[in-house]
Amino acid sequence: MVYAQCTSAEGTSADNTLRYTNVEFDGLLQTNNSFSKWMGNGSIISQECRNKDTWGCNKDEARIHPVSKGIRPEVYFQWQASEKCRSLRISSGPDQKNQTDNSNVEIFVKPWDRSTSECLQAGRENCGVIRTRLPYTISDKYAPANGSYSVISIKFLEGIQNTQSVIAQCPGGW
Predict the structure, then answer these.
(1) Would you say which domain of life the source belongs to (predicted)?
(2) DSSP-assigned states of every residue in 58-127
(3) I need a labelling partner for 60 at 20 to 30 A (CA). Which of 25, 97, 163, 171 fits?
(4) Taking the CB of residue 56, how many other CB atoms lie within 10 A of it?
């Protein structure tokens, strides 16, 4: 990211005016002196799908892969809540059927139309940072209004040894 500021001062050479605040290089994002690598996205579109039990409607998957030491794998899900999907279970493991991982993660939930800085202010509705172990169920406290969307970031706080599935799923049967 390049920092720029409007000014009425006379121009100067670029090496005197550029300042790096956050760094993005080869897909790595730096936040608070730690690096994460975006691995993919998934979608839970439960309001539009009604009662369909299918990928992208009431469940979806993103994959994480081993990365260099000190880099944290991160995936995102968009979540459209419905009356039948007011909470969301997040799990990970070697494949879709074996979700047994016990990874330390940081889950960040926010409405899609709210900035991260707005959400980090105390007491914001439907926003939160949750440090936990997987599997974990995001409660209805964080659910968007029916038909609205939230963005969920799942950052693994430790390295992983093998490629894994990260599954987001509406609890209960459809």
Answers:
(1) Bacteria
(2) TEEEEEE----TTEEEEEEEEEE-BTTBSSEEEEEESSSS------EEEEEEEETTS-HHHHTSTT-TT-
(3) 25
(4) 15
Cα–Cα–Cα angle for 145, 149, 152, nearest 5°?
Answer: 115
| C-alpha to C-alpha distance for 35 and 55, rounded to whole angstroms | 30
- Which amino acid makes up residue 32? N
Tens of pLDDT along 54-92? Answer: 899 999 999 999 888 888 999 999 999 888 899 999 999
Interval 52-63: pLDDT, tens: 888 999 999 999
Domains in the chain with CATH codes: 34-169 (2.60.120)
Mean of per-residue pLDDT scores for the chain: 80
Spatial distance between the Cα atoms of 156 and 158, rounded to a whole number of angstroms: 6
How far apart are alpha carbons 150 and 61 in whole angstroms?
A: 16
In 3D, which of 73, 75, 99 has the Cα closest to residue 159? 73
* Cβ 26 vs Cβ 62: under 8 Å: no
Q: Specify the amino acid at residue 129.
A: V
Report helix, strand or coil for 14.
helix
Radius of gyration of the chain (CA): 19
